[in-house]
Design brief:
By secondary structure, the protein is an all-alpha fold. It has one domain: MetI-like fold. It is about 85% helix and about 0% strand. It has twelve helices and no strands. The longest helix has about 40 residues, at about 165-200. It starts with a helix and ends with a helix. The model has no long low-confidence stretch (mean pLDDT about 85).
Length: about 260
Amino acid sequence: MRSKTTALADTAWPVGVLVVTLVLWEIAVRVFAVRQFILPAPSAMLVELWGYPGFFARNTAYTVMTTLIGFFLAVALGIMIAIGVVYSRFLERTLYTLLVTLNSVPKVALAPLFVIWLGTDTAPKVAIALLIGIFAIVVDMVLGLRSVDPDAINMARTARASKWQVLWKIRFPSALPSLFAGMKVAISFSLVGAIVGEFVAGNLGLGHVILLAQGQFDTPRVFAAILLLGLVGTILFYAVDFLERWALPWHVSQRAHSGAAQL
Protein backbone atom coordinates (compact mmCIF):
# COMPACT_ATOMS: atom_id res chain seq x y z
CA MET A 1 0.00 0.00 0.00
CA ARG A 2 1.22 3.46 -0.80
CA SER A 3 1.82 5.70 2.18
CA LYS A 4 -0.08 8.92 2.81
CA THR A 5 3.17 10.84 2.38
CA THR A 6 3.65 9.41 -1.12
CA ALA A 7 0.05 10.16 -2.05
CA LEU A 8 0.43 13.73 -0.78
CA ALA A 9 3.63 14.14 -2.77
CA ASP A 10 1.89 12.90 -5.93
CA THR A 11 -0.82 15.50 -5.40
CA ALA A 12 1.64 18.29 -4.63
CA TRP A 13 3.65 17.80 -7.82
CA PRO A 14 0.93 18.94 -10.29
CA VAL A 15 0.06 21.88 -8.02
CA GLY A 16 3.73 22.84 -7.73
CA VAL A 17 4.25 22.70 -11.50
CA LEU A 18 1.22 24.94 -12.03
CA VAL A 19 2.38 27.47 -9.43
CA VAL A 20 5.92 27.65 -10.86
CA THR A 21 4.53 28.12 -14.37
CA LEU A 22 2.32 31.01 -13.24
CA VAL A 23 5.21 32.66 -11.39
CA LEU A 24 7.49 32.46 -14.43
CA TRP A 25 4.65 33.78 -16.59
CA GLU A 26 4.18 36.75 -14.25
CA ILE A 27 7.88 37.55 -14.28
CA ALA A 28 8.14 37.31 -18.07
CA VAL A 29 5.18 39.64 -18.65
CA ARG A 30 6.60 42.25 -16.28
CA VAL A 31 10.19 42.01 -17.52
CA PHE A 32 9.27 42.29 -21.20
CA ALA A 33 6.45 44.81 -20.54
CA VAL A 34 3.88 42.82 -22.51
CA ARG A 35 0.64 44.74 -22.94
CA GLN A 36 -2.37 43.29 -21.13
CA PHE A 37 -4.32 43.32 -24.39
CA ILE A 38 -1.85 40.82 -25.85
CA LEU A 39 -1.01 38.66 -22.84
CA PRO A 40 -2.28 39.49 -19.35
CA ALA A 41 -0.23 38.56 -16.32
CA PRO A 42 -1.54 35.84 -14.00
CA SER A 43 -2.15 38.55 -11.41
CA ALA A 44 -4.60 40.23 -13.82
CA MET A 45 -6.44 36.92 -14.22
CA LEU A 46 -6.60 36.50 -10.44
CA VAL A 47 -7.99 40.03 -10.10
CA GLU A 48 -10.66 39.13 -12.64
CA LEU A 49 -11.53 35.92 -10.78
CA TRP A 50 -11.55 37.71 -7.43
CA GLY A 51 -13.81 40.45 -8.75
CA TYR A 52 -16.50 38.11 -10.08
CA PRO A 53 -16.37 34.91 -8.00
CA GLY A 54 -20.06 34.06 -8.33
CA PHE A 55 -20.05 34.60 -12.07
CA PHE A 56 -17.09 32.30 -12.67
CA ALA A 57 -18.28 29.71 -10.13
CA ARG A 58 -21.69 29.46 -11.81
CA ASN A 59 -20.25 29.06 -15.30
CA THR A 60 -17.57 26.60 -14.13
CA ALA A 61 -20.17 24.46 -12.35
CA TYR A 62 -22.27 24.33 -15.51
CA THR A 63 -19.32 23.24 -17.66
CA VAL A 64 -18.29 20.59 -15.13
CA MET A 65 -21.86 19.27 -14.94
CA THR A 66 -22.14 19.03 -18.72
CA THR A 67 -18.73 17.36 -18.98
CA LEU A 68 -19.47 14.76 -16.30
CA ILE A 69 -22.88 13.84 -17.72
CA GLY A 70 -21.39 13.36 -21.18
CA PHE A 71 -18.45 11.44 -19.73
CA PHE A 72 -20.54 9.02 -17.68
CA LEU A 73 -22.84 8.40 -20.63
CA ALA A 74 -19.77 7.78 -22.81
CA VAL A 75 -18.44 5.24 -20.29
CA ALA A 76 -21.76 3.41 -19.98
CA LEU A 77 -22.52 3.30 -23.71
CA GLY A 78 -18.89 2.66 -24.61
CA ILE A 79 -18.72 -0.42 -22.40
CA MET A 80 -21.92 -1.82 -23.88
CA ILE A 81 -20.76 -1.18 -27.44
CA ALA A 82 -17.38 -2.76 -26.74
CA ILE A 83 -19.01 -5.89 -25.32
CA GLY A 84 -21.27 -6.09 -28.36
CA VAL A 85 -18.31 -5.68 -30.73
CA VAL A 86 -16.31 -8.42 -28.98
CA TYR A 87 -19.17 -10.92 -28.96
CA SER A 88 -20.76 -10.06 -32.33
CA ARG A 89 -18.99 -10.16 -35.67
CA PHE A 90 -21.92 -8.29 -37.19
CA LEU A 91 -21.61 -5.38 -34.75
CA GLU A 92 -17.87 -5.28 -35.31
CA ARG A 93 -18.38 -4.89 -39.05
CA THR A 94 -21.22 -2.36 -38.78
CA LEU A 95 -21.39 -0.39 -35.53
CA TYR A 96 -17.66 -0.36 -34.87
CA THR A 97 -16.91 0.73 -38.43
CA LEU A 98 -19.57 3.44 -38.20
CA LEU A 99 -18.05 4.67 -34.94
CA VAL A 100 -14.58 4.86 -36.48
CA THR A 101 -15.96 6.81 -39.45
CA LEU A 102 -17.92 9.16 -37.20
CA ASN A 103 -14.84 9.80 -35.07
CA SER A 104 -12.92 10.99 -38.13
CA VAL A 105 -15.47 13.76 -38.74
CA PRO A 106 -14.57 17.06 -36.98
CA LYS A 107 -17.00 17.46 -34.09
CA VAL A 108 -17.24 21.21 -34.67
CA ALA A 109 -18.92 20.39 -37.98
CA LEU A 110 -21.47 18.18 -36.21
CA ALA A 111 -22.21 20.60 -33.38
CA PRO A 112 -24.72 22.74 -35.35
CA LEU A 113 -26.69 19.59 -36.18
CA PHE A 114 -27.04 18.73 -32.48
CA VAL A 115 -28.33 22.24 -31.88
CA ILE A 116 -30.94 21.77 -34.62
CA TRP A 117 -31.97 18.37 -33.27
CA LEU A 118 -31.76 19.00 -29.52
CA GLY A 119 -32.21 22.74 -29.11
CA THR A 120 -29.96 25.21 -27.32
CA ASP A 121 -30.26 23.90 -23.76
CA THR A 122 -27.91 21.43 -22.02
CA ALA A 123 -28.73 18.45 -24.26
CA PRO A 124 -26.55 19.35 -27.29
CA LYS A 125 -23.51 20.05 -25.06
CA VAL A 126 -23.93 16.67 -23.39
CA ALA A 127 -24.35 14.98 -26.76
CA ILE A 128 -21.14 16.48 -28.13
CA ALA A 129 -19.23 15.61 -24.95
CA LEU A 130 -20.56 12.05 -25.25
CA LEU A 131 -19.67 11.78 -28.93
CA ILE A 132 -16.10 12.97 -28.47
CA GLY A 133 -15.45 10.87 -25.36
CA ILE A 134 -16.98 7.56 -26.36
CA PHE A 135 -14.46 6.54 -29.02
CA ALA A 136 -11.56 6.22 -26.56
CA ILE A 137 -13.73 4.13 -24.24
CA VAL A 138 -14.81 1.73 -26.98
CA VAL A 139 -11.34 1.26 -28.49
CA ASP A 140 -9.58 0.65 -25.17
CA MET A 141 -12.38 -1.52 -23.81
CA VAL A 142 -12.41 -3.71 -26.93
CA LEU A 143 -8.64 -4.11 -26.59
CA GLY A 144 -8.98 -5.02 -22.92
CA LEU A 145 -11.77 -7.54 -23.45
CA ARG A 146 -9.77 -9.27 -26.17
CA SER A 147 -6.46 -9.23 -24.29
CA VAL A 148 -7.36 -12.09 -21.99
CA ASP A 149 -5.19 -15.13 -21.40
CA PRO A 150 -6.61 -17.86 -23.70
CA ASP A 151 -5.81 -20.47 -21.06
CA ALA A 152 -8.15 -18.74 -18.63
CA ILE A 153 -10.93 -18.75 -21.22
CA ASN A 154 -10.36 -22.42 -22.04
CA MET A 155 -10.34 -23.35 -18.36
CA ALA A 156 -13.63 -21.52 -17.83
CA ARG A 157 -15.20 -23.28 -20.79
CA THR A 158 -13.95 -26.60 -19.49
CA ALA A 159 -15.72 -25.80 -16.22
CA ARG A 160 -18.87 -25.14 -18.29
CA ALA A 161 -18.97 -21.45 -17.48
CA SER A 162 -21.55 -19.47 -19.44
CA LYS A 163 -20.65 -16.56 -21.72
CA TRP A 164 -21.99 -14.18 -19.08
CA GLN A 165 -19.78 -15.76 -16.40
CA VAL A 166 -16.73 -15.58 -18.66
CA LEU A 167 -17.47 -11.93 -19.38
CA TRP A 168 -18.16 -10.88 -15.80
CA LYS A 169 -15.52 -12.93 -13.98
CA ILE A 170 -12.67 -13.10 -16.52
CA ARG A 171 -12.91 -10.66 -19.41
CA PHE A 172 -14.25 -7.62 -17.58
CA PRO A 173 -11.76 -7.64 -14.66
CA SER A 174 -8.91 -8.12 -17.14
CA ALA A 175 -10.18 -5.19 -19.20
CA LEU A 176 -10.36 -2.73 -16.30
CA PRO A 177 -6.81 -1.32 -16.79
CA SER A 178 -7.60 -0.64 -20.45
CA LEU A 179 -10.94 0.86 -19.49
CA PHE A 180 -9.33 3.30 -17.08
CA ALA A 181 -6.78 4.25 -19.74
CA GLY A 182 -9.67 5.10 -22.05
CA MET A 183 -11.45 6.98 -19.28
CA LYS A 184 -8.42 9.22 -18.73
CA VAL A 185 -8.51 10.20 -22.38
CA ALA A 186 -12.30 10.45 -22.50
CA ILE A 187 -12.62 12.82 -19.52
CA SER A 188 -10.41 15.37 -21.28
CA PHE A 189 -12.22 14.88 -24.58
CA SER A 190 -15.60 15.27 -22.89
CA LEU A 191 -14.48 18.62 -21.48
CA VAL A 192 -13.48 19.68 -25.00
CA GLY A 193 -16.88 18.55 -26.28
CA ALA A 194 -18.71 20.57 -23.63
CA ILE A 195 -16.74 23.69 -24.57
CA VAL A 196 -17.42 23.14 -28.29
CA GLY A 197 -21.13 22.91 -27.50
CA GLU A 198 -20.99 26.13 -25.50
CA PHE A 199 -19.20 27.85 -28.36
CA VAL A 200 -21.87 26.85 -30.86
CA ALA A 201 -24.97 27.47 -28.76
CA GLY A 202 -24.93 28.40 -25.13
CA ASN A 203 -25.80 31.09 -22.64
CA LEU A 204 -23.86 29.57 -19.75
CA GLY A 205 -20.53 27.84 -19.16
CA LEU A 206 -16.86 28.72 -19.53
CA GLY A 207 -17.02 28.33 -23.30
CA HIS A 208 -19.75 30.96 -23.41
CA VAL A 209 -17.66 33.22 -21.14
CA ILE A 210 -14.68 32.94 -23.52
CA LEU A 211 -16.84 33.67 -26.55
CA LEU A 212 -18.40 36.78 -25.02
CA ALA A 213 -15.09 38.08 -23.63
CA GLN A 214 -13.42 37.58 -27.01
CA GLY A 215 -16.13 39.67 -28.66
CA GLN A 216 -15.51 42.45 -26.13
CA PHE A 217 -11.71 42.16 -26.41
CA ASP A 218 -11.59 41.41 -22.69
CA THR A 219 -8.35 39.40 -22.74
CA PRO A 220 -7.98 39.01 -18.93
CA ARG A 221 -11.43 37.42 -18.73
CA VAL A 222 -10.61 35.08 -21.61
CA PHE A 223 -7.44 33.94 -19.88
CA ALA A 224 -9.23 33.66 -16.53
CA ALA A 225 -11.74 31.28 -18.10
CA ILE A 226 -8.94 29.34 -19.81
CA LEU A 227 -7.13 29.07 -16.47
CA LEU A 228 -10.26 27.64 -14.88
CA LEU A 229 -10.60 25.17 -17.76
CA GLY A 230 -7.03 24.04 -17.18
CA LEU A 231 -7.71 23.56 -13.48
CA VAL A 232 -10.95 21.69 -14.14
CA GLY A 233 -9.32 19.42 -16.72
CA THR A 234 -6.41 18.65 -14.38
CA ILE A 235 -8.69 17.91 -11.44
CA LEU A 236 -10.94 15.64 -13.51
CA PHE A 237 -7.98 13.74 -14.95
CA TYR A 238 -6.42 13.11 -11.55
CA ALA A 239 -9.81 12.16 -10.14
CA VAL A 240 -9.99 9.34 -12.69
CA ASP A 241 -6.36 8.48 -11.90
CA PHE A 242 -7.17 8.32 -8.18
CA LEU A 243 -10.17 6.09 -8.90
CA GLU A 244 -7.93 3.78 -10.94
CA ARG A 245 -5.41 3.46 -8.10
CA TRP A 246 -8.21 2.75 -5.65
CA ALA A 247 -9.91 0.17 -7.87
CA LEU A 248 -6.78 -1.54 -9.24
CA PRO A 249 -4.15 -1.65 -6.48
CA TRP A 250 -3.24 -5.15 -7.67
CA HIS A 251 -2.34 -4.15 -11.22
CA VAL A 252 1.31 -4.13 -12.28
CA SER A 253 1.13 -0.47 -13.35
CA GLN A 254 0.26 0.56 -9.79
CA ARG A 255 3.02 -1.55 -8.29
CA ALA A 256 5.48 -0.07 -10.79
CA HIS A 257 4.29 3.41 -9.89
CA SER A 258 4.82 2.74 -6.19
CA GLY A 259 8.26 1.30 -6.85
CA ALA A 260 9.28 4.31 -8.91
CA ALA A 261 8.09 6.64 -6.16
CA GLN A 262 10.32 4.90 -3.66
CA LEU A 263 13.48 5.22 -5.80
